[in-house]
Amino acid sequence: HPPPLPLPTSTAEGRKWKDAVIATRSHDRYEASYDFARYKEADPPGVESWIKAKPHGTWCAENPPAIAIDCEMCETKDPVTGVTDAKALCRISIISATNPDEVLLDTLVKPAWPVIDYRTRINGIKAEHLETVQ
């Protein structure tokens, strides 16, 4: 087993989130859903698709102590192999968890493969919304 993950206990604001972090990690599906070693092993040989975050420091002191992320997905299909990706990112929204009115990022994302199901009924995203996205 890897060493235990740290808890947000270094600041008063971080300590407000400690119980939520503990509850999240105790969920029945947490280990299976966040087994990052397994995901990294799934990368093809020679491909490093993971990005390591910079260590905490003064550069991020003004960032919110917690954020909320929402991702909208669509389904895409590789035109060469016919392989489908049912969870292709098409929008990402990030807000400050301590001030939900503070939008840090809200952008559409153009999937690498052609979209075969925009899931408009769920996310409101249509083909024309992604046409000019690069």
Question: How is this structure best described in words?
Answer:
It contains 6 helices and 4 strands. It has a 4-stranded antiparallel sheet. It has 134 residues and is α+β, with helices and mostly antiparallel strands.
Number of strands: 4
Give the distance, in angstroms, between the N- and C-terminal Cα atoms. 41 Å
Mean pLDDT: 90
Quaternary state of this entry equals single chain
Low-confidence stretches: none
Q: In one word, what is the shape?
A: globular
Largest sheet: 4 strands, antiparallel
The helix content, as a percent range, equals: 10-25%
- Indicate the radius of gyration in whole angstroms: 18 Å
Strand arrangement within the widest β-sheet reads: 3-2-1-4
Number of helices: 6
Given helix and strand content, the structural type is: alpha+beta
Provide the β-strand percentage band: 15-25%
Give the key terms.
single chain; 134 residues; alpha+beta; four-stranded antiparallel beta sheet; 22% helix; 25% strand
List the helices and strands and how they pair.
Layout lengths: L11 H4 L2 H8 L4 H4 L2 H6 L25 E11 L6 E13 L6 E6 L6 E3 L2 H4 L3 H4 L4
Antiparallel strand pairs: 1-2, 1-4, 2-3
Put the structure in a nutshell:
This protein has 134 residues and is an alpha+beta fold. The chain has helices at 12-15, 18-25, 30-33, 36-41, 120-123, 127-130; strands spanning 67-77, 84-96, 103-108, 115-117.
